[in-house]
Design goal:
The chain is of the alpha+beta class. 37% of the residues lie in helices and 16% in strands. It has helices at 37-42, 44-56, 90-97, 103-124, 173-176, 183-200, 211-220, 231-240, 251-256, 258-261; strands at residues 10-13, 18-23, 29-36, 70-74, 77-83, 126-127, 136-138, 144-146, 153-154, 160-161, 181-182. A hairpin with a 4-residue loop joins strand 1 and strand 2. The radius of gyration is 18 Å and the shape is globular. The two termini are 28 Å apart.
Length: 272
């Protein structure tokens, strides 16, 4: 991934906050996410995301996660400081690539994300609730790093949630049906959507011209996989995108799947 020009200090503006690049106390480049208190007072969702990230500041330490490490308040804002990743988003990387990733390319990045999600679920009891291509960045070593914990729920990985969070194209069937659901299996479904995206060059397993059509397809349409995928890869995708949350793999089981065990440069079960 090409580093972003350090002169370009503004890294982006999301729905809830703005992110800029600056120098931290040690002189290293850091990313700073800014929430406006006025917007937080006027918009409940902004306040919720701000408080979620503020509460998690300093609590998440993993090689494949970038989360706020320090929180500062002042001048009508809350600022969250975190590591800066120069490689941009995974979505941007795939667009520049201009083709589907090979299984070997996708495996490396996906393995790193599964490690991040397993850490969240098993060690922290946290579900992310907004896993998507735009919420994965690449660091200077090309490693995948999961970001944006505004929708994250502590204690939600294995308990039932009733609030609906996330991005429509990545929502699990139980969310599409507005059912109480566990956060862990919903995250695993989103991982399946992301892997499909990598292997198809940016397509989604389920789509719709309207929200109703999208929800209908997520809930009941048959999964169609790219024809060129190896049997182990097809098996993993079908398990990640299982419509039954109870039958879906856990993040720990995903990590043990044969497709993810193949060493770099050798795709499990792929024809040579």
């Amino acid at each position: 991934p090409q580093p972003i020009d350090p002169k370009d200090a503004a890294l982006g503006a999301g729905v809830f906050a703005k992110v800029r690049m600056t120098h931290g106390r040690d002189g290293q480049l850091v990313a700073v996410k800014t929430y406006n208190h006025k917007e937080a007072r006027e918009e409940r969702a902004v306040a919720k995301h701000m408080l979620n990230e503020e509460r998690l500041a300093g609590k998440l330490q993993h090689a494949n996660i970038i989360a706020p490490q320090r929180a500062f308040k002042g001048n009508g804002c809350t600022e969250l400081e975190m590591e800066y990743a120069p490689g941009g988003t995974l979505e941007g990387f795939v667009k520049k690539l201009g083709r589907p990733m090979t299984e070997d390319e996708a495996r490396k990045l996906f393995r790193e994300l599964v490690d991040a999600v397993r850490y969240l679920h098993e060690e922290k009891g946290i579900c992310h609730r907004d896993i998507k291509m735009e919420n994965v960045v690449l660091d200077g070593d090309g490693r995948a790093r999961l970001v944006d914990f505004g929708a994250a729920k502590e204690g939600g990985a294995d308990s039932f949630l009733t609030s609906m969070q996330g991005t429509p194209a990545y929502m699990a069937p139980e969310l599409a049906q507005l059912r109480a659901h566990k956060g862990g299996p919903a995250d695993v479904w989103a991982l399946g959507v992301l892997l499909y995206n990598l292997l198809s060059g940016g397509a989604f397993p389920f789509w719709g011209k309207s929200m109703d059509e999208l929800k209908r397809n997520i809930t009941s349409a048959m999964l169609k996989l790219p024809a060129n995928l190896s049997p182990p890869c097809r098996d993993l995708l079908s398990r990640l995108l299982n419509k039954s949350s109870a039958e879906r793999l856990s993040a720990a089981d995903v990590r043990k799947h044969s497709w993810l065990q193949a060493p770099a440069g050798e795709a499990a079960g792929e024809p040579r």
